[in-house]
Fold this protein.
Amino acid sequence: MLDTTLLTDAVDVFADRLRAASESRLQRGAAAEARELARELAVRAQDIEKPDAVPRVMPDVGLFSVSDQVTVAGRDLALVLTDEGQLADAVRLVHEAQKRAGV
């Protein structure tokens, strides 16, 4: 079994910083960046679980929900990862998104 602690820790840190961010910070792009990350992580998890299915897109449910969306998508992906390369790539995505979000 693959140890995905690096991914879950990175997701938790990003989500916590989003929760602590001001509404104006979220409106200036942090929420959009987080939503795109959550969507990408969700698609990756779905592709591993059901490679022949059309992935469902995570909906936009508002500024204050993006932290939960990042958490759920990141943890879902962590549960299905089987490859160190996939893990490293997912961790990189989280760190890059957090940097772009400015939180």
Summary: Residues 5-101 form one domain. The first helix runs from residue 5 to 20. The mean pLDDT is 97. The radius of gyration is 13 Å.
